[in-house]
Design goal:
The chain is an alpha+beta fold and 121 residues long. The chain has one domain: GTP cyclohydrolase I, C-terminal domain/NADPH-dependent 7-cyano-7-deazaguanine reductase, N-terminal domain (GTP Cyclohydrolase I, domain 2), CATH 3.30.1130. It is built from 4 helices and 4 strands; from the N terminus they run βαβαααββ. The chain has helices spanning 21-24, 41-46, 55-64, 74-89, and strands at 4-15, 28-38, 93-100, 109-116. Strand 3 and strand 4 (109-116) form a beta hairpin. The chain starts with a strand and ends in a 5-residue tail after the last strand.
């Protein structure tokens, strides 16, 4: 299998994330990147969206994720995104990175999570 990559780079969202209630009170700017490994040789050969991962659908799902929700940890949010992408969009591997702009002395802080599709035995 080829190791082709679809990358959503720095999708800008406003989510409520933070350990304290005060930090979660207002949505804050986050940048979410999702890297999905899949073989899209058949999609390229047939010029068919049905044979690859619809990155527009992935983006739309992420953008709607925060409706009525909040998270204490970026790790929890990253895990939820990774699990959903693996289940719904079926890449062989997904890497999610979330950047948060909370520490004034740092350009950003981020978490990065890699999850691999595990075949059912």
């Amino acid at each position: 299998m080829d190791n082709d990559i679809i990358l959503i780079h720095d999708l800008e969202v406003r989510f409520s994330v933070g350990v304290s209630e005060q930090e979660r009170a207002q949505p804050q700017r986050l940048l979410i990147s999702v890297e999905m490994e899949t073989d899209f040789s058949q999609a390229a050969r047939h010029d068919s969206l049905a044979m690859t991962i619809d990155y527009q659908a992935v983006c739309q799902w992420i953008l709607k994720l925060s409706e009525g929700r909040s998270w204490k940890l970026l790790e929890t949010l990253a895990s939820e995104i990774a699990d959903h992408v693996l289940t719904e969009f079926k890449p062989s591997l997904v890497c999610v990175e979330i950047k948060k702009f909370i520490i004034p002395e740092a350009r950003f802080v981020s978490v990065r999570m890699r999850r691999q599709h595990r075949p059912v035995r």
